[in-house]
Amino acid sequence: MSGLKVLSVASEVFPLVKTGGLADVAGALPGALAGEDVDMRTLIPGYPAVKDKLGGAEVAHEYPDLFGGPAQVLAGRAAGLDIFALDAPHLFDRPGNPYLGPDGTDWPDNGRRFAALARVGADIGLGAILGFQPDVVHAHDWQAGLAPAYLAYAGQPAPGSLITVHNLAFQGHFPVSIFWELGLPDRALSFEGVEYFGGVGYLKAGLRLADVVTTVSPTYAREIQTPEFGMALDGLLRARGGAVHGILNGVDEAVWNPATDPALAQTYNPLRIDMRARNKAALQSRLGLAHSVDRPLFGVVSRLSHQKGLDLLLHVLPRIVEQGGQLGLLGSGERWLESGFGDAAASRPGSVSCVFDYDEKLAHLFQSGADFILVPSRFEPCGLTQLCALRYGATPIVSRVGGLADTVIDGNDAALAAGVATGFQFAPPSVEALANAIDRAFEIYGDRAAMRRMRLNGMRADVSWRGPAKRYAELYRSVARTAA
Ligand code: ADP
Ligand code: GLC
């Protein structure tokens, strides 16, 4: 099969700009797909952090007026990726978080900013850039959700389109007034088009109009077709039925490799798993926790949001400490959770410690030094922290939802007897169920052989992009249309 050209359209890409797992996925896909004979380029907004790293970029396309100002598409390479950056200073020349202004709320013109991104993605799909005419446009999340709409209403032969839902909770829902700026035909403001509860729904538009919809785990693909997890889009997703696929995320094995990771105090591999102890000691020092080889160290690396269920953990914390455990948390986000964990750390010095920051390097030390990684999410499309945890031999304790359900093998009696368990699952996401899973973790921790077995199973689990990349390549081929 000859090489396929795919344009990936995303609002964040690791290592250029990242707020969460979307960036990791968008950053890893091109490399993973190269092995499948897919030539993927990535369109991202030209935030200052992106432009800084795009040395030697060329102007590949120009717009005299794109949503209120001049813009150009810069083509270049950064961090090993082929990047198209949408350089539109009036929209993207803003430092810091890609979505939020200095007061921590959404930029008021996000509707315009990400319509522009999608618009340019569709234009590239339609041949705007000489030398790279994609067979498929792959849109990620609501920020790129209008790209399939622009393609569908282009009135000319268009490439195939695919949208991936990384998180249905973020929908890009804007007042109807934005519609008149989008440049779509009037008929697009309909149930079959971009209309959503009287406004314009960017994610809804993508889900309705892309040739194929994917999400990031098989369980989440099923969940989002139910009212409980569908966030008002379950009906639409059910109607698309066979066009909805669940493809698990992988971990970028070059970025997350305990045998070579420069962020660790001590590198290791499954044959040298005992050397993790040095990372545990380093993490305890870094966090100001009491030095102890024997106390189980529970770690959290997470956005602090309702989704992640960390308020449940706050209730279980006393029980962890009473049983001799320690908790280290690295996270940033909602203030009520920061203050809850801040108070917990202040009242239990030596046993509980929190770093309220976003720190990529420290995240690696957590994965290499913690005994357990906790992910008590209420919903979780895929989750990458538990995949990194498996790879680093930190045993994950997760709620049984979405990708967490698909990637961790619960240490129940049968799985333990068969020697296949890789962690602990609990359901429902409640304080009681979490407490019970933590009790089970303490029990295993007390049995050195069983604990070691579980860690090794995790390290040997396949969390790579190889399988997922094949699935994406198949889907791309199934929707590819060479534009005329
Ligand atoms: P989500 O995208 O919902 O936040 P994922 O588990 O898919 O959840 O991805 C989270 C990614 O962000 C992982 O790579 C994780 O290591 C990283 N991460 C989350 N919080 C932090 C933090 N405070 N510091 C460093 N990395 C973090
Ligand atoms: C979202 C989800 C997370 C997923 C990530 C990458 O941020 O919350 O579960 O792993 O996207 O797909």
CA-CA gap between termini = 20 Å
Q: How large, in whole angstroms, is the Cα Rg? A: 23 Å
Unreliably modeled segments: none
Strand content: 15-25%
- Provide the spatial order of strands within the biggest beta sheet: 3-4-5-2-1-6-7-11-12
Count of DSSP H/I helices: 20
- The second-level CATH architecture of the largest domain is 3-Layer(aba) Sandwich
Instruction: Using the alpha-carbon principal axes, give the shape.
Output: globular
Number of strands: 18
Distinct small molecules bound, one entry per kind: adenosine-5'-diphosphate, alpha-D-glucopyranose
Q: Briefly, what CATH class of the largest domain?
A: Alpha Beta
Number of domains: 2
| Structural class by SSE content | alpha/beta
Topology of this structure?
Layout (H helix, E strand, L loop, with lengths): L3 E6 L11 H14 L3 E8 L2 H6 L4 E6 L7 E8 L2 E7 L1 H4 L17 H16 L10 E5 L6 H6 L7 E6 L7 E2 L4 H4 L12 E2 L2 E3 H8 L2 E4 L2 H6 L3 H4 L3 H7 L3 E3 L29 H12 L9 E8 L5 H13 L3 E8 L1 H13 L4 E4 L4 H10 L2 E4 L9 H8 L2 E5 L2 H6 L5 H6 L5 E3 L4 H15 L2 H13 L5 H14 L5
Helix pairs in contact: 11-14, 12-13, 12-18, 15-19
Bound molecules: adenosine-5'-diphosphate and alpha-D-glucopyranose.
Adenosine-5'-diphosphate (ADP) binds next to α1, β13, β14 and α14.
Describe this structure in words.
- This protein is an alpha/beta fold.
- The protein folds into 2 domains: 4-250 and 466-479, Glycogen Phosphorylase B (Rossmann fold, 3-Layer(aba) Sandwich), CATH 3.40.50.2000; 270-460, Rossmann fold, CATH 3.40.50.
- It contains 20 helices and 18 strands.
- The strands form 3 sheets. It has a 9-stranded mixed sheet with strand order 3-4-5-2-1-6-7-11-12, sandwiched between helices. Strands 15-14-13-16-17-18 form a 6-stranded parallel sheet, sandwiched between helices. Strands 8-10-9 form a 3-stranded antiparallel sheet.
- β13 (297-304), α12 (310-322) and β14 form a beta-alpha-beta unit.
- α12 runs parallel beside α13.
- It is globular and about 65 Å long.
- The two termini are 20 Å apart.
- The structure holds adenosine-5'-diphosphate and alpha-D-glucopyranose.
- Residues 20-21, 24, 301-303, 330-332, 358-360, 363, 382-385 line the site of adenosine-5'-diphosphate.
